[in-house]
Design brief:
- The structure is a homodimer.
- Chain A is α/β, with parallel strands linked by helices.
- Chain A is globular.
- The first copy, chain A, has three domains: 165 residues, ANL, N-terminal domain (Rossmann fold, 3-Layer(aba) Sandwich); 218 residues, 3-Layer(aba) Sandwich (Rossmann fold); 98 residues, ANL, C-terminal domain (GMP Synthetase, Chain A, domain 3), CATH 3.30.300.30.
- In chain A, helix 2 crosses helix 3 and helix 6 packs across helix 7.
- In chain A, a hairpin with a 2-residue loop joins strand 22 and strand 23.
- Chain A is built from 16 helices and 26 strands.
- The interface between A and B is large, with 55 and 55 residues.
Chain lengths: 525, 525
């Protein structure tokens, strides 16, 4: 009798009941949750009308638009699957993922249509394309085209709601090594991820609440934009969609909409505060920013503080929906001084509710001493069951019933995890790990260092030795003096000091904006 | 592969991983979550050893003790069912509920053993009794007796964990009319109720967080003590168990343990602040108190404020696990003045996450105007599926796929619900509802009124007319003057003024401490 499944349908319906007049803002448009719900339901129904069936996969190709937000809801609500396509992949990889995902429809903005029209030959498995085009532009393609705004028109079709264990979303991991791997998530997983996130985000210093205005700067194709499109609506928060990441316009929108909360990778934060108007536009916002996707360096965090930005680290993976930890304050830390607390925000954090997390070395949990390094393994109700069409890698991921993150970390006496390396990025010199993230963190604090990456170089004697790539105008002498200081003050071991410091004008980046260490390692061969 | 069920087992395991050194306090004992977990696991295993099977029901009969806390975890963790027996029922009703619940074991403190020993003849369906008795006292009874502390001894038995849809708890509703009705809840329902509660409690003015020390004063036999034994452990909060409700000792414990958060029915709050040492012991605590079980009157809330107590209303039922709403601030209210916000805390509140709530009159949602009265109907992932062994009442409860609360309410323009009456307590005069709770709320503010209840009296002309019962030393003249004022200032309609004001020395109470209006109505016959 009591049929309340953990579905996106129920999440949205309840949110609209409780906060129907809260707003969603995109460019010059502003609509209430209630209006959004009405449109989303119409889109759901009209998708069925044009032929979309349960379990059909719809590829969404767009910037962070209002259409994308509808996709997050309307597609899963009819039991179909939203494939959030990584638009930063090269075309061949995009088509590879679309084929591997068994996409049958595409929802796309007209600005990306060139890509599709030119490559229609590779897309013979696509049954229809839904295009957002204000003027209903004509496209020369042999696949049926529907216009997005037509699909928002009133419809009174009735449809069966999905089960909570139906797949809702799928996407591909950024794949720094080899071809991207697909992961999928069910309605239930997304709802549980949202409700647990709300619990964690309510802690100091984030205190995410109904007075916040959120504008995530995590692309919507990237791990559910860290769940924020679901978490925030569930929590009744005003949501501002950024569109294409045009930094000056984003800063102006933040200022105009009084954005109080955002989330982004360090690179975007770096770009935001490097804009000439950043100080003027940001300083009154007291912006809280969740940083994830890559480690938050102390240098960047300190620079952000000067702009009134409070940063907090988070941690997760494509495989984990994504949030596993947040560097909010626990009871052992909350009464420390502001300066001390700042240190904790730079750590990887503490597990959010319902996350079981261990750091293990040779099948044994490491000591909480901030020194012993082990791999992070996790259990939680929202982890992917495995990789699409890849049994072997799925079993590897889930060996012994725990998801193996491949991230190396330590835990301190306060229970905070700090990632010291990716297992595959690890540098092993003379049989000892050299934690590249700790080195990068320290080097980032040196005047004139904008970005830094430390990678392994093959070495006959030691196996591997660290080399640092630096983007910035720091002087090599100054860096070497600082490195000696770090050694003298006991912050790093002498053998950790990189053998070389190589200056570059630009860092190679992966499709999700992280520094691509694979490319850097290749340069050293 | 990804076997993370929403079970009490996983809830506890994760809590211990994340906050293993947090404390649980009972009388002169204090133990860490980690120690609690070890003991709870041993108890689980030893319960299996003495013969407890999956799905067996264990009746717990005790005050709010540490043993009870173990029961909340150890019993469901092996797939057995905890029956929280209402110790305020008369013995015949207790045995009726135990039989109807199919109890097969009893977990009990020695102070209650008299009841069992004397009535052993009625308990031939019980296979074993686990007694908490420090001196292993002998009991003259023909049922196997085990001693609680023996069952905490180390055991290395392995057992299969329950499924999230297995029943974890059951208990009986207080039953102001007719025999008590049984309701049950699954692991999944309890876990979802906990995580949603954390989300709601994180809002202003409660801001429940890791710095809190909680001491619930809701009996553990009463609707999972409103879920606090699960919610608080999940949230990593210091937990103080009150034992038997001895007001002076409770006040001293609150002071000593620096309790910052509690939950109780209005009667208990009234008793707490009526103690002669209340002011001295409470005033530095800034105690936050959730009030539920009955409406919070303005008079009591104002008196509590003088003791540094911030009260917030909550609402729920036995059938709903229980929490449905909390009177925390939403974004429309949070920026109002403190005086205005105080008014909102007295309301029934706003739905917590994942609760769909409607107020309907003749199958139509009422307007958000604070005037139109309808019945509250709800959906949420933690509502009971129905009454034990009572198909007819279950169907009535769940007609049209919504749980019908039987509570009459209005919604204001801010989205806050305010219950104006129980459907069965409603007074209908000349075809119009007279909301007894609004009358009681106003009368409670009159000097010298300690408790008040307004009930219906049969009337030849009007059908029913209101009569007020009052406990206190107010003068009848003063009351009548105030009632005229309430009418003159438009706060109540003239025809709402009770025909009679009857003074009593004590209010009749139900087993859960609510005023028993049925007894009062009977007095008027």
């Amino acid at each position: 009798m009591n049929g309340f499944d953990l579905t996106i349908n129920n999440l949205l319906e309840t949110a609209v009941m409780n906060n129907g007049d809260q707003k969603i803002v995109y460019m010059d448009r502003s609509l209430t949750y209630k209006e959004f719900y009405k449109n989303a339901m119409n889109l759901s129904k009209n998708l069925i009308k044009i032929g979309v069936n349960r379990k059909d996969v719809i590829a969404v190709i767009d910037y962070d638009s209002l259409m994308y937000m509808y996709g997050y809801y309307s597609i899963p609500m009819i039991g179909a699957v939203m494939h959030t396509v990584n638009i930063r992949y090269p075309p061949e990889i995009i088509f590879y993922t679309m084929q591997r995902a068994d996409d049958s429809y595409i929802m796309i903005d007209e600005v990306f249509m060139d890509l599709i029209v030119k490559n229609a030959a590779y897309l013979n498995f696509i049954k229809g394309i839904i295009v957002n085009s204000k003027d209903h532009k004509h496209f020369d393609i042999n696949i049926p085209v529907y216009y997005f705004d037509d699909l928002l028109k009133d419809s009174d079709l009735e449809f069966k709601e999905p089960d909570e264990n139906d797949t809702a979303t799928l996407f591909f991991t950024s794949g720094t090594t080899g071809l991207p791997k697909g992961v999928s998530f069910t309605h239930r997983q997304l709802v549980l991820h949202s409700i647990a996130s709300i619990g964690a985000l309510s802690n100091e210093p984030i205190k995410y609440n109904i007075n916040d205005v959120v504008m995530p700067l995590v692309p919507m194709f990237h791990v559910h934009a860290w769940g924020i499109p679901y978490t925030s609506i569930m929590n009744g928060i005003k949501y501002v969609l950024p569109g294409k990441y045009d930094i000056p316009r984003i800063l102006e929108t933040m200022n105009k909409e009084k954005v109080s909360m955002s989330a982004m990778v360090p690179t975007i934060l770096y770009m935001l505060i490097s804009d000439k108007n950043a100080k003027q536009l940001l300083q009154d916002l007291n912006l809280k920013v969740i940083i994830g996707g890559a480690a938050l360096s102390r240098g960047l965090a300190e620079r952000a503080r000067a702009y009134g930005i409070d940063v907090v680290s988070g941690y997760g993976m494509s495989e984990t929906a994504p949030i596993l930890t947040l560097a909010v304050y626990n009871r052992k830390v909350i009464n420390k001084s502001d300066e001390e607390k700042f240190e904790f925000r730079l750590k990887t954090g503490i597990p959010i509710p319902m996350v079981s997390l261990r750091v293990v070395n040779n099948n044994k949990d490491v000591e909480n001493n901030g020194k012993e390094i082990g791999e992070i393994i996790v259990r939680a109700p929202w982890l992917t069951n495995g990789y699409i069409k890849d049994k072997e890698k799925s079993e590897e991921l889930w060996k012994d019933g725990w998801l193996h993150t491949g991230d190396l970390a330590v835990i301190d006496e306060y229970g905070y995890i700090k990632i010291v390396d990716r297992e595959k990025d690890a540098i092993k010199s003379g049989g000892e790990f050299i934690p590249s993230l700790i080195l990068e963190d320290l080097i980032s604090t040196i005047q004139g260092v904008n970005e830094v990456a430390v990678v392994a170089k093959a070495d006959d004697k030691w196996g591997e030795r660290p080399v640092a790539f630096i983007n910035g105008n720091a002087s090599l002498d100054e860096i070497k003096i600082k490195m000696s200081e770090f050694v003298d003050t006991g912050r790093i071991a002498k053998f950790w000091v990189p053998d070389d410091f190589i200056f570059v004008n630009e860092m190679p980046k992966t499709s999700t904006g992280k520094i691509d260490k694979k490319v850097l390692r290749d340069k050293l061969r």
